[in-house]
Design brief:
By secondary structure, this protein is of the alpha/beta class. It has helices spanning 2-21, 25-35, 40-61, 63-69, 89-94, 96-99, 128-145, 166-176, 188-201, 210-222, 242-252, 363-371, 402-416; strands at 110-114, 122-126, 153-157, 178-182, 205-209, 232-236, 256-262, 266-270, 278-280, 285-290, 302-309, 320-328, 341-348, 352-354, 360-362, 377-386, 389-396, 421-426, 441-443. It is built from 13 helices and 19 strands.
């Protein structure tokens, strides 16, 4: 029966639901499935056309851009985007109404909020077609992971949506086919019950916050609980460390696909399973990686991610600074796709710690050095309260000895100076943010 329901969902309920809603999601997914095999020149041509259209549309329909630019920028090639000033999160907060298109009635737009890394709400909106096309891009990238429409998926998510109406319940049974573990209550009891549900319902896919997937996988391994082998695992919303990937892969006997995006523009990039970096969703977003001076970063060089949304007419975001850091790749993926390739996401700007000499230290790389190298560390969070003071929140096992503690302190002092003040806080668990994510490093300077 489960296999029959999966087949019916994929071939009958999926297309019927789109037809009923008048959606273009599956049409766009088919286009994306074709364009992923285009040549680099064809992809660049599509991006240039959409960049011109987006810039012209924003200037015509958005008061903020008319005031900010004065005249319509001429985009002869993508490099001409550099003449347009960056758009910050604060600017979006301050000029929300002016950034919305006058072509849409406010009530016709889809409204959403994101807390981001600072916990401050950022209000956003997008048009209906944009939402459908973002879903189409997710369908394509999920397919790279091995997911198929109609597959039953177990998801680990904070405050997950619960089907309440009859229509919502029918849709979840026939179309969405999701069941959740609420990561705001990620404890031994809830994970044990979720493991029983995995054994009973035997999903084909697993989806969720990267660190939450790791916490659950480690729990299963420690408790020696066997669960069904997964056909697809998709980690998203936060950095996926190599040590976490190894545990998840081992426990579920399945490769983990890392997906990168944000609430503001949807999917940005995703792995394809060949371990060659993350393919950019180039048909929908134009990505720049910039040095501190604003010049384009070269492959292998860290830089700030700046995105231009090519499909959202409701609220066009042009040269939007996400406040994340990444590195371009100079490799060619074995899969054959010619989409631009990001080597790796380095982390959020907010997660970079500050050195007294003015330099920045990627918190996630520091965590990797300590968490993977020091015995007895179960979880670790680094909080920098001043240039010379750090609080280390640790969840330790019985193997965490005094020498291990000294080794941990030594790593921090080796990087930030021998005279820094370090406070160790032993916790039973690392607290989650309000958006249910975990932060490896927090800079309060």
């Amino acid at each position: 029966m489960p296999q029959i329901l999966e087949i019916l969902s994929r071939h009958l309920f999926y297309p019927l639901w789109d037809l009923r809603d008048g959606s273009t999601r599956l049409q766009e997914c088919r286009r994306l499935m074709a364009s992923q095999w285009w040549t680099k020149a064809e992809i660049r041509e599509l991006q240039l056309r959409r960049l011109r259209e987006t810039v012209k549309y924003a200037f015509t329909h958005c008061e903020y851009y008319r005031k900010s630019w004065s005249t319509l920028p001429s985009i002869g090639s993508p490099v001409d985007m550099a003449q347009i000033p960056l758009l910050s999160k604060q600017t979006v907060r301050d000029h929300f109404a002016e950034l919305c298109s006058d072509e849409y009635a406010p009530q016709s737009l889809i409204m959403t909020k994101t807390g981001g890394s600072t916990g401050r709400a950022l209000e956003l909106c997008f048009d209906g077609r944009c939402q459908e096309w973002r879903n189409a891009a997710a369908l394509r990238s999920d397919g790279w992971a091995g997911w198929r429409p109609g597959m039953l998926v177990a998801a680990l998510w904070g405050t997950p949506p619960v089907p309440r109406t009859i229509k919502e319940r029918i849709r979840n049974i026939l179309h969405d086919r999701l069941f959740f573990l609420d990561t705001m209550r990620l404890d031994g009891h809830s994970m044990g019950e979720f493991a029983k549900e995995l054994l009973r319902r035997r999903p084909g896919g697993l989806f969720g916050h990267a660190h939450s997937l790791f916490v659950f996988a480690r729990f299963l391994e420690e408790q020696r609980i066997k669960v069904p082998r997964m056909q697809a695992i998709i980690a998203t919303s936060m950095m996926l460390l190599d040590v976490e990937r190894d545990v998840i892969t081992r426990v579920f006997d399945c490769t983990v696909t890392n997906r990168y995006g944000c609430e503001e523009v949807g999917l940005i990039a995703c792995q394809c399973g060949k371990d060659s970096g993350l393919h950019v969703n180039a048909e929908h977003v134009y990505v720049e990686i910039l040095r501190p001076d604003g010049a384009p970063a070269v492959p292998g060089e860290e830089g700030q991610i700046v995105v231009t949304d090519l499909i959202n007419k409701g609220m066009p975001l042009i040269r939007y600074a996400i406040e994340d850091m990444a590195i371009w790749s100079n490799r060619t993926c074995e899969c054959g796709r010619q989409l631009p390739l990001i080597e790796r996401i380095v982390g959020r700007v907010a997660d970079f710690l500050k050195h007294r000499n003015g330099g920045l230290v990627a918190g996630v790389s520091l965590v990797e050095k300590t968490l993977t190298a020091i015995q007895g560390l179960d979880q670790l969070q680094i909080v920098q309260t001043s240039l010379a003071r750090f609080e280390l929140n640790i969840v330790a096992t019985s193997n965490f000895t005094f020498s291990a503690e000294q080794e941990l302190v030594g790593v921090l002092r080796n990087v930030f100076g021998a005279d820094i003040d370090i406070v160790l806080n032993r916790l039973e668990r690392i607290p989650q943010e309000r958006n249910s994510k975990y932060r490896f490093s927090i800079c309060q300077v």
